[in-house]
Amino acid sequence: MAFDLPRHDWTRDDIRALYTAPLDTLVGQALAVKQVNWPDGALQKSQLLSIKTGGCAEDCGYCSQSAHFDTGVTAEKLMPLDEVVAAAKRAKAGGADRFCMGAGWRSLKDRDVPKVAAMISAVKAEGLETCVTLGMLEDGQAEALKEAGLDYYNHNLDTSPEYYGSVVTTRTYDDRLDTLSKAREAGVKLCVGGILGMGEGREDRIGLIHELSKLTPHPESVPINMLVPIEGTPLGDSPPISVTEMARAIATCRIVFPKSWVRLSAGREGMSEGEQALLLLAGANSIFVGDRLLTTDNPGEDRDGALLEAVGFQTAGHEEMEKGPHREKQTLIDAR
Ligand code: SAM
Ligand code: DTB
Ligand code: SF4
User: Residue 233 CA: which ligand is closest?
Assistant: First the structure.
């Protein structure tokens, strides 16, 4: 297998074989793929901002922002531009180089496009990569966002097609795929991943990775979230998924998406330093930083500083990391 060539002919059986391998085989292969494509000891940082919180018409069973559930999150108006810019400046000062703006919307309305476009342009002007996650898109909207300077559109598939209807009933998997193709056709890069720990089985996690692998080209970013259980949602009492299962998913993604960002996303707040270290060792090359994700907590600067020190990683910008490995630095021993 060529470790640096993205493949689009993965079968579910192929992906299952990776996912279920002994953990040392799986992680060993993931690290071999990572070493061919990315520098060792480097981690990219992205930061989230909820620009429009709550009151969402969808019924995603995991989400604090759905108007269908009583979660204590109330509907707010779209954030003013100056507050978004101030948050972007803080994110950049904290070392993030991608800024992702999320809205609790079922779909983007035409009347909001100019307002979000202005946010994208202003964030881009701060020297950050831009990402938005705004729900479903109509024709022409992705083009307007691209024109404003949008780099990435986040729209997760969340789980397998078979399990999707157990988590969300107000839209279909095909709706998600349709929005992804609209963003792609406008020349916007894709950020597409999922959530583990929603009561799905291992076969659903394998199915999610298989669906992602069929996207051509692959999503440039693959966020892997551990469910943050939200009281009041149907999934609020879900038992936690094991960190080794997260490691399997991340390592499998690292192999299947050799050139993509694999982001260890939601769920770090409840993990120990050692658990997070395992997930970085499994092949993640990006995290979300900052005290908050969208509506929930995230480890802050102090904990993240200690984590990076423990694993001996440095923060690196996307451009530096996209240059690929520092081969001479990655060979410590001549293994014969
Ligand atoms: N409304 C837009 C949408 O659904 O695409 C954008 C915002 S939505 C909060 C972005 C993503 O966050 C979801 O697709 C889901 O994968 C993830 N997410 C939401 N709530 C979560 C939770 N409690 N735990 C983990 N991930 C979550
Ligand atoms: C993604 O996959 N995870 C992020 C981002 N994309 C938008 C969102 C995580 C949200 C976690 C729950 C919350 O804070 O509301
Ligand atoms: Fe709405 Fe997005 Fe939350 Fe679903 S995940 S309820 S679409 S904000």
Answer: 1
Domain regions of the chain by residue span: 12-334
Q: What is the pTM of this model?
A: 0.96
The neighbour count for residue 100, using CB atoms within 10 Å, is 29
- Tens of pLDDT, residue by residue over 253-291, are 999 999 999 999 999 999 999 999 999 999 999 999 999
User: Tokens representing 296?
Assistant: 């929930």
Residues with beta carbon inside 6 Å of ligand 1?
62-63, 65, 102, 104-105, 133, 135, 155-156, 158, 195, 225, 227-228, 230, 266, 294
- The rounded Å distance from CA 286 to ligand 2 centre is 14
Task: Outline where DSSP puts E strands in the chain.
Answer: 42-52, 98-103, 129-133, 152-154, 189-191, 194-196, 221-226, 261-264, 286-289, 314-315
CATH no. of 12-334:
3.20.20.70
The token duo for 75 is 């509907």
